[in-house]
Amino acid sequence: MRTFAQTPSGTVLGVRQRAGYGTLVAISPSGEATDLSQLHPGYTALSTPAAAPTGEKVALLVAGGKQPGRVVVFDLAGKPPAHAIIRRSDTETVPASALSAPEPVSWKSFDGEQAHGLYYPPASEGFEGIGAPPLIVIIHGGPTSQVVAGWAAQAQYFATRGYAVLFPNYRGSTGYGRDYMLKLRESWGIYDVQDAKFGADALADRGMADPSRLVIMGGSAGGYTVLQSLVEVPGFYKAGICMFGVANMFTLAADTHKFEARYLDSMLGPLPEAAAVYRERSPIFHAGKIVDPIAVFQGEIDRVVPREQSDSIVSSLKARGVPHEYHLYPGEGHGWRKQETIDAFYKSVEAFLKAHVLFA
Question: Are residues 338 and 230 in the same domain?
Answer without folding.
Answer: yes
